[in-house]
Design brief:
Number of strands of chain A: 5
Shape of chain A: globular
Order of helices and strands of chain A: HHHHEEEEHEH
Strand order of the largest sheet of chain A: 4-3-5
Number of helices of chain A: 6
Distance between the termini of chain A: 28 Å
Helix content of chain A: 40-55%
Oligomer: homodimer
Strand content of chain A: 15-25%
Largest interface: A-B, 46 and 46 residues
Chain lengths: 160, 160
DNA sequence: GCCCTAATTGATATATTGTATCGATCCCTT
DNA sequence: AAGGGATCGATACAATATATCAATTAGGGC
């Protein structure tokens, strides 16, 4: 999220918008900025709040949802459906194809960590999925777990 | 879900409640019945509707949520957080330990299919998770994909 | 059997997340 | 400059979930 250079990502996004025939408007820049600069996954309403935090802008949640939908189509962001939150894709400015992404999500505090699974594990998932008639699994995987901090602090079980 | 015998599951649940010192009340029986007999994952409000469908019962959604929480603690059911729906655990009446469960969820139509991953794939997930500081991943895995029917019918991409 | 206590339920309000709709505005193309 | 599609504003509403507190019910000891 903040490992990549802000300007690089923003201009890459702008280029991809132009190539896709859509506009990279002020609203859209605001939302992408917030997501690039966030070090955690954010809900749509949290994104709206952050857009409105330090300016005279009035970003309605409705617009955030519209822009998030657009960004998902463009593969600029991922929705973490387990957490109902959104994160910036770490490969916006990469020229190569969209990678698989795997996210660990803490069942207690909802902390999110991005990991890289070995290819074999991913292949095993693909195989199991196609055996069940699912022709394509999403390149994105959400895994619910329990982060070190929560594990340490108290013993309440992960809701399975 | 309906591969297991209704009576077997209900009485196993009753036994586990007694052992856990909680009551297996009429309300709770209603909810579990609905989930056992459902062949698809249901939302909390859908469960309430089905409870109220063919009787003079008036199950409020509030009660459904309370009972679902309880059942999750007892490992009677799973919440599919990607779909915001609930399914009966297929191992309520098993004496052995709670198995891993993996659910494929169609990103288009939300159809749910339960699969069994090979141990190696699960181990790979566990390893990757602990490398990232997640001490325990949930035994349940939700995988978003695209079911055969949706793949066939139209070409809209899975939201990644 | 009766009472005490804790578990369970009822009832209501409210928070959070997300979708639908329709008119206004902006901006590119001609 | 005008037409038309993309974008945005504004409002309403649906779906999912939590908080709270009073009322009721059910077991366990006497």
């Amino acid at each position: 999220m903040s490992m990549v250079d802000y300007e690089t990502v923003m201009s890459a996004a702008e280029q991809k918008c132009i190539q896709g025939g859509i506009r990279f408007t002020k609203r859209r820049k605001q939302v992408l900025s917030v997501l690039i600069e966030a070090d955690v996954a954010l809900s749509a309403y949290e994104i709206a709040e952050r857009c409105n935090a330090d300016s005279d802008s009035n970003m309605p949640a409705m617009s955030v949802y519209r822009i998030l939908d657009l960004f998902q189509e463009q593969n600029f962001i991922h929705k973490l459906e387990i957490a109902n939150k959104y994160v910036c894709c770490s490969h916006i400015s990469c020229s190569h194809e969209h990678d698989e992404s795997q996210f660990l999500i803490c069942g207690s505090c909802r902390h999110v960590e991005e990991i890289n699974l070995c290819e074999d594990a991913v292949k095993a998932l693909q195989t199991a999925a196609s055996a069940a008639g699912f022709s394509a699994i999403s390149p994105q995987l959400e895994i619910k777990g329990r982060c070190a901090q929560c594990e340490q602090s108290e013993g309440k079980a992960v809701t399975s």
